[in-house]
């Protein structure tokens, strides 16, 4: 009971909460391209309020990345959202790789990571060092959630099928100096990287630099023109990066593109992910809830009209308020992506890819020939064949993240208050109308 009262007080205090607006990739990229050297620390300070942009501190970007959240808002769900909904996971994959690479680089501390003195190996690396993300206070305990930090236990959290595995998710040798790769595959990566340097008119780097094989792989995947996960970079950013990595493998070499990638994640991907995570029902369930709300509102109007035109006493008209409260509340919640029935249980529908996740993972472990394209995911065809009634009443799971449940509580209270207010207005109007006495 002692925890219930503060919870209710918190909900009432934030009753004017608004779900984050959807931010298109174009608007985010245009804004970042106009100011490529933006100060991320400044932008974070501007949005440091408790519910900045509709996102509480507990669901902040840093808290999610540091493993301080519970399902369905962990790093794993963030990656799956970008992969299956936005269909653009490359920014987060690259960002996580860079964090992991920075930690490994600092731990290994190669004696000479530079073939020549770097142009910008200065104090700028302080802003993107490992200390920025070592937020021990961010780790919270929750039932059924991963207790490992994402940097130290990346493989357990990012347990994707092979075609989803990011470049860092392979075995490293004990020295930490290079990736353990199939020779033919690494040769292919190196050839692509060399072609990329050659096309940019930049000298091919020294192959003896530490982590050179891994950097070649990153260039082949994320930087090359035909890279499978090519980042959305300007020509200037791309050239600047290639010039740096041609002389050093130090993490500061990625400075020209890291700000752009992180800005896109913080100000476009992350708000959209939180907005999407608030929805506790799938699309068929949301449509069903909207239709149910409209039917209840229409039924209330018909009941009020019929009782007004009849010779029944005015008191009977007040019963239409029941239909209006239920209908308007249900409709408002559905417009916010929520089903009030699921919320009453603090449940959510399993995502389509979660329904066959274990089966899909096992299949991909056996089938290495799959191209990994979105259209090739087996759950897509399976979900399309699923009967509509089964989609509406699909499998459910408990929402573990407390901050997300609190947001849903606020939206539910908003829906209830709007329903009560609108129903009261409609009821007063119909009560004031004289009876028709037609039947």
UniProtKB/TrEMBL annotation:
The residue ranges flagged as biased composition, category Polar residues, are 40-49
List UniProt keywords, sorted A-Z: Membrane, Transmembrane, Transmembrane helix
What residues form the membrane-spanning segments?
A: 287-306, 318-342, 410-433
- Region annotated Disordered sits at 23-49
Q: What domain of life?
A: Eukaryota
Q: What is this protein called?
A: Uncharacterized protein
Which lineage?
Eukaryota, Fungi, Dikarya, Ascomycota, Pezizomycotina
């Amino acid at each position: 009971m002692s925890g219930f009262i503060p919870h209710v007080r918190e909900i009432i205090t934030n009753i004017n909460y608004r779900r984050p607006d959807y931010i298109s990739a174009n608007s985010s990229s245009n804004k970042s391209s106009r100011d490529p050297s933006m100060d991320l620390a400044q932008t974070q300070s501007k949005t440091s309020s408790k519910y900045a942009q509709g996102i509480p501190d507990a669901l902040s970007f840093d808290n999610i990345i540091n493993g301080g959240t519970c399902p369905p808002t962990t790093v794993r769900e963030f990656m799956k959202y970008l992969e299956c909904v936005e269909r653009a996971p490359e920014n987060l994959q690259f960002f996580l790789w860079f964090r992991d690479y920075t930690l490994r680089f600092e731990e290994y501390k190669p004696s000479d990571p530079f073939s020549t003195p770097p142009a910008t190996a200065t104090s700028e690396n302080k802003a993107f060092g490992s200390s920025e993300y070592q937020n021990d206070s961010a780790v919270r305990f929750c039932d059924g959630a991963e207790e490992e930090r994402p940097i130290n236990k990346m493989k357990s959290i990012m347990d994707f099928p092979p075609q989803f595995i990011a470049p860092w998710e392979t075995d490293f040798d004990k020295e930490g100096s290079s990736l353990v790769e199939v020779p033919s595959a690494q040769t292919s990566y190196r050839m692509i990287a060399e072609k990329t340097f050659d096309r940019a008119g930049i000298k091919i780097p020294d192959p003896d630099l530490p982590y050179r094989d891994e950097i070649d792989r990153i260039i082949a995947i994320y930087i090359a023109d035909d890279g499978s996960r090519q980042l959305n970079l300007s020509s200037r950013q791309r050239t600047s990066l290639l010039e740096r990595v041609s002389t050093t493998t130090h993490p500061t070499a990625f400075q020209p593109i890291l700000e752009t990638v992180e800005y896109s994640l913080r100000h476009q991907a992350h708000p959209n992910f939180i907005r999407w995570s608030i929805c506790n029902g799938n699309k068929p369930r949301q449509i069903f809830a909207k239709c149910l709300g409209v039917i209840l509102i229409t039924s209330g109007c018909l009941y009020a009209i019929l009782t007004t035109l009849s010779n029944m006493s005015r008191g009977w008209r007040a019963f239409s308020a029941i239909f209006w409260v239920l209908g308007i509340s249900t409709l408002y919640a559905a417009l916010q992506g929520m089903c009030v029935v699921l919320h009453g249980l603090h449940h959510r529908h399993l995502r389509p890819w979660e329904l066959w996740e274990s089966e899909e993972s096992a299949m991909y472990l056996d089938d290495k020939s799959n191209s990994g394209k979105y259209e090739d995911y087996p759950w897509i065809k399976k979900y399309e064949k699923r009967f509509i009634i089964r989609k509406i009443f699909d499998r459910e799971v408990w929402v573990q993240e407390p901050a997300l449940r609190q947001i849903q509580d606020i939206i539910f209270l908003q829906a209830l208050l709007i329903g009560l207010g609108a129903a009261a207005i409609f009821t007063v109007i119909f009560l004031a109308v004289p009876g028709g006495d037609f039947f």
